[in-house]
Amino acid sequence: MLRSRFLNVDVFSDFYALVRQVPDGKITTYGTLARALGDIRAARACGYMLSVNPDPDGTPCYRVVHSDGRVGNYTHPLGNTEKVRRIRADGIEIRDDRICQLESVLFDDFVTNSILEKLRAEQLSLAGELAINEEIRPSRVSAFDVSYAGEVGYGSMVTTSSGGVPETEISTREVKIPYISSYLSYREFPVLSSLIANSGDFLVFDGNGILHDRNMGLATFAGIISGKPSMGVAKSLSGGKIVDDHIYLRGVEAGFVYSGKYYVSQGNLISLQSARNLMKERGEEIISLLKSAHRSANEARLLKSVKDTHANN
DNA sequence: GCGACAG
DNA sequence: ATCTTGTCGC
Q1: Is the pLDDT of residue A1 over 80?
Q2: Fold classified for A11-113
Q3: Which of A309, A213, A233 is nearest to A275 (CA)?
């Protein structure tokens, strides 16, 4: 059987398993847990995952504090007061909302599979397959976006049609990784992948292509996995320097600014020149497809919550 | 307070 | 990305 082209991860369950390793009488920090997952940049996501912990009794959220000893937030009816009470009940001293002598009670000896390190290695390996010298002129363009209700992602694909009215398709899937900068493709691609079978001959994503730490933004990842030419259109800049309308990343030109507010980079199977030509000739159409995908993904999410309300009544 | 690293 | 849908202040 052909193996999947990318790692199927469950960062939520890996993370909760880490939190359960913190022994009685010990404390750990958001950053320490992030490093155990394999990337300090996941620190905020660790805070997020604790806030949505599905098993508060079995997974001791209260044992996670800031690296400077501040106790930090606690999602509980009694709030931080309860977090402080639980930490003290474990025999740990707190003064002025700070853990006393954090080093002496800090646990950082995690047994971990460093999942984010594995994902980075995979991104680097996939980047070896990059092809960005192809001059292309796409015909039917598909634009993608995802909206979320908790950990359920609603993906939308809107495709140019010759009739004039674009075609929309929706997919729904539970996500297994929170948003962590530079790992977006592992969160969004699984929601969108089933749609690509019916896509046009060119894929456009709300996010980056090669304009990424490891040249593996969502658009590039999707282009490499699907084998279809692709492009990324981000609404904010995640790295790189802008000179006129050119974007340089680590000294290499990795994209351009469109209409003063969109950061466009190649996904896969398209040259920088072709991407520029395409935006010059069909930029408005592409932006409107992306906006349409954004709207329909949102609508799908809202429609689902209406259905849930009816189901519960 | 600053810097900030897509969604 | 999601949160809020009525009220304050210009």
Answers
A1: no
A2: Arc Repressor Mutant, subunit A (1.10.10)
A3: A233
The 10 Å Cβ neighbour count of residue A70 is 15
Q: Residue A307 — pLDDT band, cuts 50, 70, 90?
A: low
Does strand C come within 7 Å of the CB of A298? yes
Residue A46 among the catalytic residues: no
Residue in this structure with the two tokens 């939308």, named with its chain if needed: A156
CA distance A159 to A165: 9
Domain range list for chain A: 11-113, 126-311
Protein-to-nucleotide distance from the CA of A257 to the C1' of C7, whole angstroms: 39
Confirm whether any atom of chain C, the nucleic acid strand, is less than 7 Å from CB of A148: yes
In whole numbers, what is the pLDDT of chain A averaged over residues? 93
Query: Which of A198, A131, A211 has the alpha carbon at shortest distance from A171?
Result: A198
Q: C9 C1' – A302 CA distance, angstroms?
A: 32
The nucleotide closest to A179 (CA, C1' atoms): B7
Give the tens place of pLDDT for each residue, A67-104: 999 988 888 888 888 999 999 999 999 988 889 999 99
Nucleotides of B under 7 A from a protein CB: 5-7
Q: Could you tell me the pTM of the whole model?
A: 0.94
Considering A11, A18, A27, A61, which one is annotated as catalytic? Answer: A61
Pick the CATH number of A126-311 from 1.10.150.650, 3.30.2170.10, 3.40.50.10320, 2.60.40.1180: 3.30.2170.10
Which stretches does DSSP call E strand in A212-251? 230-234, 241-243, 246-249
> What is d(CA A96, CA A108) in angstroms, rounded to the nearest whole number?
24
